[in-house]
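Hey, weird one. I pasted the Beta-ketoacyl-[acyl-carrier-protein] synthase III sequence into the form twice and got a warning about non-standard characters only the second time. First submission, copied straight from the form history:
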Amino acid sequence: MYQSKIAGLGSYVPENVVTNDDLSKLMDTNDAWIQERTGIQERHHIKKGDGNTTSIMGAKAAKIAIERANISKDDIDFIVFATLSPDYYFPGCGVQVQEILDINTCPALDVRNQCSGFIYALSVADQFIKTGMYKNILVIGSENHSGGLDFTTRGRSVSVIFGDGAGAAVLTRSNHNGQGILSTHLHSEGKHALELSLKGPSTNHWVPEIIAENPQGDDIPYYPYMNGQFVFKHAITRFSEVIMEGLKANGLEVKDIDMLIPHQANLRISQFIQQKFKLSDDKVYNNIQKYGNTTAASIPIALTEAWENGKIKEGDLVVLAAFGSGFTWGSAIIEW
């Protein structure tokens, strides 16, 4: 059986920076309130006319990852695109990236696992490489949240959290025994699906029905809902479990971790996990302060940035972990 490794990384965020003070002009909030609850100071949002969409940002990040992998775009055998905010209901963003980058005809798969999307996509790509079906797989996580958030006081508990951006990785067949993705671990618990959800518009609740039910435009359910405390409680439990599951599966311990990159959902969650595992600051990478929660893009953006900053080197044990809507959660154990 083959092994896969990450050969190239790339990320992209829109130039438009939105600070907490900027949001305080739109809703009843302030910098201290946001930082105390989330750790976020600013985020990047697509600005009308800047030419960005979920697929375009994904393609920009992918182009960088392909160049850093030292391969041609035509060496890509398969595209796996993770997002909860595609450009269209259909087709998916994977085929759009294939067109944007002018990649030769190849399969493209879209993954809808929200905050766990990149881990799930990475796992899919890893399995295809391990079985020998494909050699070079492009994995992308990209999100355009800002176009679908409620920027009023009513929506502040959710809208202050999310940002836009994309990250990408090229997985390739490894020639080094033991170097690469050691294992991935995936879980879900659907009974809590509606605790973090966007129920409409959908095939159960189309726009004409929503408007008919709300002729005055009050409480139209276009916006995400999150039971914050409930999600936080489950997140810290599942993060811990799935990290330990991955370590034990490979005969490793917490002390073996060189870099933990958690999904950037809330700085308080990351800090809780760091304290529980007694990891020093140099072994956990957080950048939610600058980007907010970019959902499927958060891990590849953070992974790219950590690698660019020299915080990950060859031979390091890198652990990725995520939890999000579904509920879904997962981890990846990587020898760099």
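That's the output from the first submission. The warning seems to come from a hidden character in my clipboard, not from the data itself. The mean pLDDT is 95.
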